[in-house]
Write a structure and sequence with these properties.
By secondary structure, the chain is an alpha/beta fold. The protein has a single domain, classed as Rossmann fold (3-Layer(aba) Sandwich), CATH 3.40.50. It is about 50% helix and about 15% strand. The chain contains 19 helices and 11 strands. The protein has helices at about 5-10, 15-25, 30-35, 55-65, 75-80, 85-90, 95-105, 150-160, 165-180, 190-205, 205-210, 230-235, 290-305, 310-325, 330-335, 340-345, 350-365, 365-400, 405-410, and strands at about 55, 110-120, 125-135, 140-145, 185-190, 210-220, 240-245, 260-265, 280, 285, 285-290. Strand 6, helix 12 (about 230-235) and strand 7 form a beta-alpha-beta unit. Helix 14 crosses helix 17 (about 350-365). The protein is globular, with a radius of gyration of 21 Å.
């Protein structure tokens, strides 16, 4: 059964450590702006941070659970059925609400500490982390994955030509600072958060590294091969636990010479990246074998990255994300500006256009890419058909009870 469905249909379930820490790794995706009633806005170059001190998680997460009670129905449906957040990492509002309510029930006695959220467009930096105090001596440090911001995704791709990235430096610094009082530390993250967890474990202070129990990377990307040829990686390699959906692409990007476990997902194609869609049975993820298409496509993308010299990699990233920045600051905006994206692409200088086209053509040549995209399109089509039918039923129900358009125009409130 899909993890999120299991959380919504049952009471508190007994889960193993992998599922438990996967759930806690999703904490950085929560919209803490609504919880704290304060503006955690984009930070300037000094990279101020917004912190939650030692707080009671039950109080905090109960507060979160009420934030979606009064929402304009049109907005709610748009967010509920938008697949953009699921593809990019964080789940849609409706899925997050189910997650938040379960976390409140299952982990409400835990304490959340040292929330840090930093977004800086000029520095191409998007970073988030939170510490969960499991008991007086044991903490779980969760690093956030990429959100919908363009700067977050640009930073992900900078990993092919920049080491360390600014977010990786922040992760190592955060881990050393937040873990001072604990004799046992577990680290984890989903997507980019998994990459940050591994980097932080590799590069934190020696007295912190000795206390690290395990490092969880849930479909997190790896590193360029040359960046793993050091003692710091070999020192933590045996403590890394990698978990990937069977058709993973993100978790196949770059390299991480540590074993991994493949799991089943209720979603298809790129949407398998959504951790809340992974299948669970008897409190554990359902294991499976990885697919040839996933291996082939991941290998093709990595080969293209290796094919370019460092200067061309940088040109590729600056050109591609320069186009995106001109269309919006976040992907939920850009997704509706496809024509402008094309126009801005053709405004690139000739050399930049050729590099982008060279990379795109090499990926498209991979047979696995076609198979992967068919899986994505098939899943998306069935997903939208299912929820379109649900929308129509809901509209009919609204008509029967006499709900008018004006009554649905309600602002979000807590």
């Amino acid at each position: 059964m899909e993890l999120l469905q299991l959380l919504s249909e049952t009471g508190i379930i007994e889960v193993d450590d992998c599922v438990r820490f996967a759930l806690l790794s999703y904490l950085p995706y929560i919209n803490y702006r609504d919880v704290l009633h304060r503006d955690i806005s984009a930070c300037d170059k000094t990279a101020h941070d917004s912190r939650v001190g030692s707080g009671n998680a039950k109080y905090l997460l109960n507060y979160i659970g009420r934030r979606v009670v009064s929402v304009a129905k049109a907005e709610k449906l748009r967010r509920k059925y938008s697949v953009v957040p699921e593809f990019l990492g964080a789940a849609s509002d409706e899925r997050m609400r189910v997650y938040e309510q379960y976390i409140d029930k299952a982990f409400g006695n835990l304490r959340l500490k040292n929330l840090r959220i930093v977004n800086d467009k000029e520095l191409s930096l998007q970073f988030s982390a939170i510490t969960v105090e499991l008991d007086d001596s044991h903490a779980f440090v969760a690093f956030g994955g990429t959100d919908l911001s363009v700067e977050g995704w640009k930073e992900d791709f900078l990993g092919i030509c920049t080491y360390p990235t600014l977010a990786q430096k922040y992760a190592a610094s955060y881990l050393s600072a937040t873990s001072a009082k604990y004799s046992k530390i577990t680290i984890g993250g989903h997507s980019k958060g998994g990459n940050l967890a591994v980097y932080a474990a590799m590069n934190c202070k020696a007295h912190v590294e000795k206390r690290i129990d395990r490092v969880y990377s849930f479909d997190g990307q790896g590193f360029m091969q040359k960046d793993l040829l050091n003692e710091s990686f070999s020192g933590i390699k045996e403590r890394i636990i990698r978990i990937l959906p069977k058709d993973s692409i993100v978790g196949r990007l770059m390299y991480c010479d540590a074993p991994f476990m493949c799991v089943e997902s209720a979603f298809g194609g790129v949407f398998q990246h959504d951790l809340l869609a992974w299948q669970v049975e008897n409190g554990s993820f359902v294991k499976t074998s990885d697919t040839e298409s996933s291996c082939a496509l991941g290998g093709a993308i990595n080969a293209v990255a290796e094919m370019l010299n460092e200067e061309d990699r940088k040109r590729l990233i600056e050109a591609a994300f320069g186009v995106l920045y001109k269309c919006g600051d976040s992907f939920d905006v850009i997704i509706n500006k496809k024509q402008k994206v094309i126009q801005e692409f053709f405004r690139l200088n000739k050399k930049d256009r050729l590099i982008v086209l060279k990379v795109a053509s090499n990926v498209l040549k991979c047979k696995a890419f076609g198979k992967f995209m068919l899986s994505t399109v098939f899943y998306y089509g069935s997903y939208m058909k299912k929820h379109t039918e649900s929308d129509l039923k809901e509209q009919d129900a609204d008509k029967r009870v006499g709900i008018g358009k004006n009554e649905l125009n309600v602002e979000r409130s807590v």
